[in-house]
Amino acid sequence: MNKKNAGMYRMLVAIITVCTVGIVFALTTSAQSFVQNGSFEQDLEGWVTNGSEAITTPENDWLPDNGGDKLLNYWSEESYEADTYQVITGLEDGQYELKAWFANSGTVESSVMYAVSGEELEIEIPTTGEWQEMSLEVEVEAGEVTVGFYSNAHAGAWLGVDLVSLEKLEGENVRDDFINGVDISTLTKVEDNGGTFYDQGVQADPVEILASYGANYARLKIWEDPLDGDGYNGLDDTIMKAKRIQEHGMKFLLNFHYSDFWADPGRQDKPRAWEEYSFDELVDAVYDHTAETINALQAEGITPDMIQIGNEIRPGMLFPDGNIAENGFSNLATLVNSGIQAVRDHAGDDVDIMLHLDQGGDNSAYRWWFDGIIDAGVTDFQVIGASYYPYWHGTLNDLQENLNDVSDRYDRDVIVVETSYAFTLKDQDGHPNVFGSAEESISGYPATIEGQARFLYDVMQVVKNVPNDRGIGVFYWEPAWLGVEGAGWRAGEGNGWENQAMFDFDGEAIQESLSVFSGAIPPIPEPREEDDGTDPTLEGLELFSYQKPTNASSSEGFGGGKDNAPENAVDGDEYTSWGTDEGTGAWWYVDLEESVSIERVMIHFWDGVAQFELEASDDGEEYRSLGVIDVDSSQVDLSFEGEQARYLRVVITNSTSNWVGFMEFKAYGLEKSSDDENEGNEGNEGNEGNEGNEGNEGNEGNEGNEGNEGNEGNEGNEGNEGNEGNEGNEGNEGTGATNGIDKNDNSTGVDSTSKGDELPNTASSVFNLMLAGLILLIIGAICYHRGRTVKSV
To answer: What is the pLDDT of residue 773?
Structure first.
């Protein structure tokens, strides 16, 4: 073949490939949806508008996954009313779900997605700088429904819509035995320390309250010999709670930690009594502990319905023997199989066995782990359990894709065995909470009662949507863990989770969230009302560390849309971070560029740091210690009395993982006098509000950021506080959606190329795309011309 023909052949193959991909994409994105042109790739074909010049369908490269090249776009320099809708006929009567992805900015009087079939339903579109999916359940009557998007907006307000679909629902629940689960492991500790529970003002047993709202399964962890010495989560305490679960008609999941304390990706410590065992003795101890626990429960008339062998054991368990990083899957498989054998010998073959990992949105981690454990000989398990906390574990789409894949790949049922969300950002017990404003921003739901309810509903929908009925349920983690004194995560400490409970700080049942268990569909929540963003404890102090020079012993990993680096800890972006896989001994420092009086240091750590030393220096050479601090919470807040220093250094002195680091480092000192207030870091005095990245609308790298994507040491990370996300849209209140517009009007759709096809600054420029296309066209023409002039060989 000559070069000319070869070049033409390659061009033909490329064209065929592109066309094939386009056809496959079109087929897959439209499957099972009754909406025509739901991604607006054919502009407004199939859609009708009210003729507003604000309506366009421009190309853009900032779209949701599988969003194609175009979107429905509302924007104008003047105030406008825009309405775009589609009349769908020939449907079978019944329940349908209307879904679409949205992103928007600016002030609106009203912005809704709606459906009309007999009655009109609508859902308010919240203000969000990121793409967010919304859904609306619709009952179709007489085989016809009108679906659409209406906005009454102020000048400069923008709305983007993409991936519109309407799918028939086969039933309210995919399966009639769907698990509405709760983990109540800490309940007796709360009650013994004075916690009381109420439903509509009437005091009641919290287990009874949970069951009355539809909870049908409860999970309890068990520790071999509880570290704190108070007996909570030991055998007797577990039996007591299991009896209450059984009395209220709920099923029972028993969760073996094989530890004396919390077992998670950051810590998988052996029970103290097992520390000197040989590996063979350790294998026997796993069997004996499992068997003895089951036998003791059965002696009280209780047999667990499901048993979990290990808790979040992606890195392994019973370290160091069962550590995958040190010993591969072989040792772990032997330990897991020992526990499984004890279940089969003492609880029988009808009990389902679960293997549980964290990182519910990380499909590559699940494939790696389950491929490895199955190849090592562990096959007798029926359920794959996933932890999913949206502020650590990715987006709901990530979770959906992972559950869909692993249920099919390994032919197992799947369950979200841990999840939770905040109903407030307030604190009850003075102990820093895991969930703060940064977690709210990452997750995309407001930290309100309505936000908590909708989040739980959406997670349950993800599990119900797993194909072939393989999604069996959801467990809400610690809904009854109130912030009462004495009921902290360990002796002498507070509770970092009380703002994610399903009872408020007074112990009153949060009906909106609990009702989701019995089938309630909560509305899309409004943004949380913002406070003024000031911290009164920082009054009179100045932030000296903002954007100052930094350095570190090493940097690895990724988070917040960029590689981990020393400067990320002081860049004002609460999602980016400094991190490394160096573990104990790693260090990081900041140069404040002048000697200042240090009064406060605040650090937002990953979970891998157990202890650190804070050091100070005047010259960057000789450092003095300001203290060695144990990290019991992700949020560390240190106070000093006029400690003079130019350099501050953090040295990791103990870690639970090789991966260590932090999202934020803030050093505050006394404000400068008026004579030198213009020197150095102008305008940053105590201003935490400047540290949020206000230009990140459209930056999908911030979604679900755990501070360290791809970083296996960040799992179990208890904290990502910061930016308050979607609040602040004061324009969403107001009139309804119609404002005199007849949504069944069959007027002609407008020409999508007519006017206003300009996106706001949150999206890419059409001009840039056209310029790039022109450049590629020129290059292609040159290559083709060269192919025509070359001699054949």
So the answer is: 58
